[in-house]
Amino acid sequence: MIHFDQVSKTFAASQRPAVDRITLHVKQGNICVFVGPSGCGKTTILRMINRLVTPDGGTITIDGRSIMQMDPPALRRTIGYVIQQVGLLPHRTIAQNIALVPELLKWPRDKTEKRVLELIEMMGLDPSEVGHKYPHQLSGGQAQRVGVARALAADPPIMLMDEPFAAVDPIVRLRLQDEFLRLQQTVQKTICFVTHDINEAIKLGDYLVVLKEGRLVQTGTPIEILTQPEDDFVLSLLGDDRGVKILDLTRAETLMEPFENRLGPIKSNGHRVQSIDPVKIALEMMMQKNTDEILVCKGTRPVGILRWPAIKTHVNRISGGTV
Amino acid sequence: MNFAGFICDNTGLVLEYTANHVSLVIGVLLLSLALWITTGLLISRHARLAGAVIGLGNVVFCIPSISLFGLFMSVPGLGLGRRTATVVLVLYAMMPLIRSVHAGIRSVDAAVVNAGKGMGMTNLQLLLKIQVPMAWPAVFAGIRVTVVLITGIATMATFIGERNLGRLIHQGITRGDADMIVAGALIVSLIALLLDYLMGRVERIIISPGLRYQSLEPYRGSA
Fold it and tell me: How far is B113 from chain A (nearest CA, A)?
């Protein structure tokens, strides 16, 4: 879908390149997360996709077409853009803000109005309550939801999101992340997402791109990055709780002992999780109920049992510790 | 004090002077808005040019008005009367108007412009749909100062032949007639107040309600 080939950028005021010969591919329908400390070039990479920044070298193509052949405003109207500061137009109502790109694309008025209503509802807000308000009357979380709705308005195939949840408080952030993942299930956009928060990257990303000082350090799925960190930089970025983070990405069925291998009757202490639940949920339940085993179910049917030693061994193996 | 009596005794003259005064101020205002708001917008993209133009406006503003009227009077084609008065007053309006337009455009939140650009607005659309509407509060502050200023300085145009309320004040001084001075000054103040009030009404129509609460913080924090 989006392809970078040897893309570089050095800003006029700087000695070292902000982005240094980056080659990567973002697959259709994926959430690709660019993660790294500040100054690693992640925002610059994002802003090159919609030509807010022009690369000095290399090519960027979308569906095989070089973006340099496209008219920048026309290109940008086909790419949703969400930023940390939201950037809602303070002099326009929420409905008028969401209608911005359809307005630029000269959609008929009734089509735009219908789309705006649909989006406000999709964001879990009440159109009759929020539509006529001005941005200063919204909470941070509501403003950010409106920012996402505005980016989705013209149904662009690609979305660029630059630390969209960084400015809200942690509780709201978690809720927005969950809503975002649920939304992506239905809209299936190709999303480039920038964050400095490795936990957010692991939670949201289908594919992670780890950057340092403009260079690409490692790419891969969250589980690949967690289990096989390339070097000390990635290791330190992941933090000391790498093994425990993996439990959030591992399904209970992966570590359970399936019942077909088991002899004898099923005995259960009544505590159960779903097979697709993360192991972290099972672990939490074990600690809460002070037990060492949890029944794993598919719907109501028990399919296996998850034991504490299996979790311990798994974390130990991944963290590279000794048995 | 019997300035009311003075006005009653000289109604025709006072009305003529008032009408001349108001028509001069309104003409100057319309010309100044067209000229200086356009200039302000044009220079807002070039920092160095903006510095030079605002500097020029400051210099003009610092020249005593009576000498400026005198100087322009001797320019061929201007002479005594309305033309010179208009040119000089338009020049006085340059500083407050250009400055407020420039400050207004510069005060626009960079994140909003970034978002607008990222969504595919052209430079003209950014200017007309984001920068100008968001600059209105600052621009209106400048316009209202200018209105009051022009109304006052216009009295000086009496020295180059304008038959306006400045004449009442000037002759009041030469004759030592306090009633005449007060009558002139009072009507000038009333005109300034009235024009300022009218601009306030226009402001309420033009400036979006979304911008009238800017002193509050932009977002309230939690969901």
Answer: 8
pLDDT, tens only, B113-158: 999 999 999 999 999 999 999 999 999 999 999 999 999 999 999 9
Query: From the CA of B105, how many Å to the nearest CA of chain A?
Result: 14
Which of B216, B219, B220, B222 to probe the A interface (max A CBs under 10 A)?
A: B219
Tokens (6 digits) for B17? 């002077």
Residues A258 and A310 in one domain: yes
Q: Are residues A221 and A251 in the same domain?
A: no
Q: Which residue of B has its CA nearest to A162?
A: B115
Task: Please check whether residues A234 and A255 belong to one and the same domain.
Answer: no
- A160: nearest Cα among A132, A193, A205: A193
ipTM: 0.81
Residue B2, classed as helix, strand or coil, is coil
CB burial of A55-77 (b: ≥16 within 10 Å; e: otherwise) equals: beebebbbeeeebeeeebbebbb
A9-45 residue pLDDT tens: 999 988 899 999 999 999 999 999 999 999 899 999 9
Nearest to A172 among B210, B216, B223 (CB): B223
pLDDT tier for residue B220 given thresholds of 50, 70 and 90: very low
Q: CB of B133 within 8 Å of any CB in chain A?
A: yes
Contact A104 B223 (CB under 8 A): no
Phi-psi group of A158: left, alpha or beta (phi > 0 → left; psi -120 to 50 → alpha; rest → beta): beta
Closest residue to A90, CB basis, from B117, B119, B211: B211
Domains of chain B (ranges, CATH numbers) = 3-206 (1.10.3720.10)
Cβ distance of B115 and A175 shorter than 8 Å: no
